[in-house]
């Protein structure tokens, strides 16, 4: 007599295999998404200062549609970057124009060499919801979550761990446009977690991408590195 065959048995085994497959995939995706927030948390806790060279690409939104569509204009800048927790950072643009953005812990200074002009602002009035809060001011991840909605992103295939930060209170950038979101890419190294890239989008659809090179972290930076002295003969505007 032939053994009894349950026609549902192979299907049941197949169903279990499918469920197991999706559980594995789901757990992999969840762990990948968590890694971006873990990297941000580790960066805040362990990376006290750093310096790097940077390349910044600013792309304006495309115009028109269909056959008449025109790609957005691209502007390329280069310079050096330093930061020291808390509330000190410095972007020194060297090409194509000389410009400095320096936060000394109390004041944000913007020095435009071509205009022979310095603009100063109280730092506390511009830090909240700004990209600088991600690397220079927040004491912990919880404080950062009070200012931003944070979302871990999947890898872009660039070996970086990405986090998207959307300001809860929309803050204004230097050009007056509203910051919509920031994506931050972190790199795990033997020395610690490095900030490797920033991608920012404003309300006008303009995208700014900063990529950091030759990064050094937890080096010999002191508050004196971020002191700013107004050059003689330069106009000063306080805002």
- Report how far apart the termini are: 95 Å
CATH architecture: Clam
CATH topology: outer membrane lipoprotein receptor (LolB), chain A
Uncertain segments are 1-11, 16-34, 171-176
Count of individual beta strands: 12
CATH superfamily: Lipoprotein localisation LolA/LolB/LppX
How big is the Rg? 23 Å
What summary fits the major beta sheet?
Answer: 12 strands, mixed
User: How large a portion of the residues is in β-strands, by DSSP E?
Assistant: 35-45%
The amount of helix comes to: 10-25%
- Number of structurally distinct domains: 1
Q: Name the average pLDDT.
A: 82
Give me the strand/helix succession.
HEEEEEEHHHEEEEEE
Sheet/helix structural class: alpha+beta
Question: What is the spatial order of strands in the main beta sheet?
Answer: 7-8-9-10-11-1-2-3-4-5-6-12
